[in-house]
Amino acid sequence: MDPEVHALTGAYVSHALEPAEREAFEGHLEQCPTCRQEVAELRETAALLASAASEPPPARLKAAVDARIAVTRQLPPIVERSAAEAEPAAGTAVRGGTRRRWLTGLGWGLATGLAATVAVLGVRVADQQNQLDQAHQRDTTIAALLAAPDTRTGSVTVTTGGKGMVLVSRSHDEAAITLTGLTRLPSGQAYQLWMMGPSGARSGGLLPTGSGGTSGSVLAHDLGDARTIGLTVEPSGGSAQPTTAPIMLLPMPA
Amino acid sequence: MLGRSSSKDAAGRPAPTLESCLHRVALGDRDAFDAVYEQLAGPVFGVARRVLRDPAQAEEVAQEVLVEIWRTAGRYDPARGSVRAWALTMAHGRAVDRVRSVDAGARREARVAEMMTEAPYDDVVETVEAHLDRQRVRHCLETLTELQRQSVTLAYYGGYTYAQVARLLETPLGTVKTRMRDGLARLRDCLGVGG
């Protein structure tokens, strides 16, 4: 390890680095378990410097905080990857780092992607509300899904290229599915989603891929016994049952 | 590690740990949040006030941080450190961010003389636990070399970057960087902070 870089642990936990140095050091931390251990210890030490500065806050602070948390939605916890996908554990510090990267890569991407581009599948869309109402409902639904206590996530590679990700809540009976980096299809073909369970495959509709044709998101209701989300290439009008081999089988965690 | 496991509530029962309280906060438990507030509001406000000096600004930072604790309780990862360190790192970081954004050079420099001559702790009303922490920290700060102590306290309580500390102390950058690290490491050992 570069002793120059390692020497920055003290300045780092004291928030005494310039922003660029801080970022560079955080990059280094991802690669350096020894540094993470030292940062953790020095952070606990710095916390005692803070405790030693403790002062009773004005009483109005509690009222102000209470008023704000009454209208502040809590972030959902970060959900661990399934065992099959998890990288080998190599100490707690490494696990922490992995989890954070995973959140950045999947959780946030999924959440923001959904908020921006999701379409609604299933029976509720038949209500034919006006578009504004639908957009509002989507945002509300996604927020609720992200906040649900039993929300689980999963991701899998699409065999012909790209990646599928799912966020599912059984208590809400809803799943948000995002596909990215798909191969562009020739005209006359479309990606179709399938809700697959013991009783067979139900169409989840054609994937709305927008102008680029290589990514799309859907929100699925009425999951029933579906345990897997399938993706096939179908004629552009869609099919009643899959007519080609699935290019993705994305398990929906129970 | 702060010996708070021996804390008792009014009925003489051991107080729940911050970790168990925060877990319940993540489930939306307002009573648990009150317990977290009870333990952290003082240090959160105190460190913000130490860095910012201005009580009104410190109060704003404390409010932000305490709401953030509520909002992100579910994201707290015990593998990365104690709840106390998590919360106070956030409080210190935000206070420092604010001091850097509002404190333009000249005004800032004027405070230096005050910083350097002042006793490291104000006399204020304090809880027994805060008092004990304060005594231990004060004792351990005394075990540092002068340069270590100045480097650590100017950066942590003063909110200066290490480059600014180097200039204030007329000491090479590399030396200050190293003193911040070995000063904190010596504090760690003196305070018995485990890894």
From TrEMBL, chain A:
InterPro entries: Anti-sigma-K/W_factor (IPR051474), Anti_sigma_zinc_sf (IPR041916), RskA_C (IPR018764), Znf_put (IPR027383). It is found in: Cell membrane; Membrane. The keyword Nucleotide-binding does not apply. Its main location: membrane. Residues 4-36 form the Putative zinc-finger domain. Residues 111-247 form the Anti-sigma K factor RskA C-terminal domain. Transmembrane segments: none annotated. Pfam families: RskA_C (PF10099), zf-HC2 (PF13490). It is a single-pass membrane protein. Gene3D superfamilies: Anti-sigma factor, zinc-finger domain. Keywords: Cell membrane, Membrane, Transcription, Transcription regulation, Transmembrane, Transmembrane helix. The keyword Transmembrane helix applies. This is Regulator of SigK. It comes from Catenulispora subtropica.
UniProtKB/TrEMBL annotation, chain B:
Belongs to the sigma-70 factor family. ECF subfamily. Keywords: Sigma factor, Transcription, Transcription regulation. InterPro entries: RNA_pol_sigma-70-like, RNA_pol_sigma-70_dom, RNA_pol_sigma70_r2, RNA_pol_sigma70_r4_t2, RNA_pol_sigma_r2, RNA_pol_sigma_r3/r4-like, WH-like_DNA-bd_sf. Residues 134-187 form the RNA polymerase sigma factor 70 region 4 type domain. CDD domains: Sigma70_r4. This is Sigma-70 family RNA polymerase sigma factor. It comes from the Bacteria. Residues 37-101 form the RNA polymerase sigma-70 region domain.
